[in-house]
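step 3/5: co-fold with S-adenosylmethionine
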Amino acid sequence: MSNIGPSARVVARRVLKRVESGSYATLALSAEMQRSRLGEKERRLATELTYGVLRNRSRLDRALSSYARKGLKKLPPGVLLALRVAAYQILFLERIPAHAVVDDAVTEVRRVAGTKLGGFANGLLRTLVREGEPELPPGDDLDSVMARSSLPRWLAELLLDRVGADGLGRAAEAMLEVAPLSLRVNRKRTTLEALVERLQDGEGAHCEASSLYPWAVDVSSLGSPEHSQSFSDGLWTVQDQAAQLIGAMSQAEAGGNVLDACAGVGGKTTHLAELGLGLHIDAVDLSKKKIALLEESVKRLGCEGITTHVSDSSRDDAKLASDYDLILLDAPCSGLGVLRRHPEAKWGPDKSPQIAELVALQVRLLDAMAKRVRPGGVLLYSVCTFTSAEGPTQIRDFLERQPSFEMAPPVSGGASDVEWGGLLSTDGSFESWPHANSQDAFYAARMRRR
Ligand SMILES: C[S@@+](CC[C@H](N)C(=O)[O-])C[C@H]1O[C@@H](n2cnc3c(N)ncnc32)[C@H](O)[C@@H]1O
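step 4/5: write tokens
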């Protein structure tokens, strides 16, 4: 273990430093992994340290500061970072000997800030090893939940607003969990059983089929998709189960004309094409780069019937039809529903002002789409976030502004691949939650133009 720990710790600290300067953890981690050429065990430890610190950052700071007479505020960033990585190992990873953790952190603090702060780090971490974490507050009030689940106040307040005081503790705690890697089976090219066999026997992965969607599978020990032959062969796509359920929720009809108004890199566009319904899909995004990636996926997966456009869907003069059978509006949003995968979002700036802007953009997109659905056609709105403003409140206001639309929840049974009962709220909208069904926190509403 002793020659595993230090290099994994160095990588984790480098990644965390990049994240502090605004990088996404996934990108920073993959760049540092490539640079350092760690072995498999070390890679796993570096990943665990990086994400462990990001998930539990304020809880680690609370423990450290309770033994630091002058608090942590004035410490140089490199020192604080080394202390956090050490505190995570001391409090959460029993398998690593505490003396090795302390020695490594003290060496790092000496390196970045000199012997005096090295001595301070030594005393502080030894006290943490001896005394342990000060007891966490057990209550369900906002402050106690924030302390236990390492949530900043702005985020805890948004969650409280959506789930209420009764659900807050459970919802916040589940957001600390590690989310699985989910794949969508390309049904045009293979079956779930055949893909699972190939991934397990041929590529050393471990698979677990979804209980929610028959084309979804959770995978571990797979490594990077680019190195997987079955990925290159176009047999699957990485996609969260909740996102797959949104594609399934479209319940598109054979031969229909479809607009994917915010297609991004095409996660949902290719899903719709894979349904094998002979759909004609216009896939639109503002970003040329994303449309280029979408086109690559279309080729890899062998999808047909997709026409791409780099365009602003909210504009009345966009060169799009005005009588679509189905419009999918997977709107730009605050993305807070995937905190399990991107815990660094907790420590960036308060997103509330940005959310207000996103809500206004969603209104513009919704109203523009309302004009492009044919009477009797469907508008499916979705977001990968849990804020009320971007989800239920947004749709309540839309239905008030646009009385020609009504909720049209997806139907279970028949050709449906999904039992929708447990996934829909009383008004028929879709919700997924880490605490309710181990999925990311998404919201979607399927509406029909009368
Ligand atoms: C949530 S992402 C879409 C994800 C995608 N549907 C998927 O499943 O892979 C939202 C996308 O909306 C795009 N977007 C934002 N404003 C837009 C606009 N006015 N017109 C078209 N696309 C827009 C963004 O570039 C971004 O790719």
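step 5/5: annotate
The chain has 17 helices and twelve strands.
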